[in-house]
Amino acid sequence: MVICTIFGGGMMEMHESIASPQVYEDSMLWMPWKEMHAKTVGFVSANAPRNGRVLDLMCGTGKLLRDIHAKRPDLQLMGVDNSAAYLQYARSGCSDIAWVESDVRRWFHAEPFDIVVCHGSLHHLPLADQPNLVKTMRALVKEDGLVIVADACVREYDGEQDRRLAVLELGAAYLREMISANQYVPALMLQVGCNILASDLASTEWKSSARQHEEWFLWNFRSFTTEKTWEPQQVPDKDGVGEFVWVLRP
Question: How much is the pTM?
Answer without folding.
Answer: 0.91
